[in-house]
Amino acid sequence: MARQVDPNKIEKVKEAAIEMMIQYGYKGTSIASIAKKAGVSVGYLYRHYSGKEELIEELIESYLEETKRDFEDTIAKSESFYDLIYSFVKGLFELAKTDILKLKFIITLIFEYDFSTMNEKKKQEQCAMIEKMMEKKLDTENLNENTTVEDIMIVIFTIPLSFLADKIMQENYKELLTEKLARRIAHMCFRALT
To answer: Which residues bind DNA (predicted)?
Structure first.
């Protein structure tokens, strides 16, 4: 008889994996440490995942899918390239205020290069999102003629997330993440590409 899956335990496992990844990085996180933090046995984890790679990949897939949907919504609602960048930055600021753990995990995914095969998939997803934006022709003709999809991806993901990685270390970070600051970061990104 098959054992039933306890959704609460699986959720605790996912939360523990995220917390461990944020704190120790991919290489520093083990199935045993995830199991201990989640309060489950290592065997329980192996009944659901073949290893750390599968668990982390599932988390990445989930976050990529959600990020992709949010970005596509932002593209659809944006009337200019600047509006798109501003909406993206503002969305990241809101995420910092409402779900800091998720933002820290995204920052970890963007900046940790230890898991190269997953990193390549992440890069392909990001490029696909940027290409979708280019298809909408959000005044991208104002871009520098030498700007590539990869350049856009690097600028609109790296600048805001680097900034946030620094700001969220401060105790009063929520107060610092103002609309004026979101506009400044968006302007910085826009200027880097035009």
So the answer is: 30-49
Structural domain that includes position 34: 1-49
Residue type at 75 in one-letter notation: I
Whole-prediction pTM = 0.82
Same domain, 45 and 124: no
Tens of pLDDT, residue by residue over 31-78, are 999 999 999 999 999 999 999 989 988 988 888 788 778 888 888 888
**Which tens digit of pLDDT belongs to each residue from 173-188?**
999 999 999 999 999 9
Contact 93, 135 (CB under 8 A): no
Instruction: Tell me, yes or no, whether 45 and 60 share the same domain.
Output: no
Same domain as 172, residue 107: yes
For residue 43, give the CATH number of its domain.
1.10.10.60
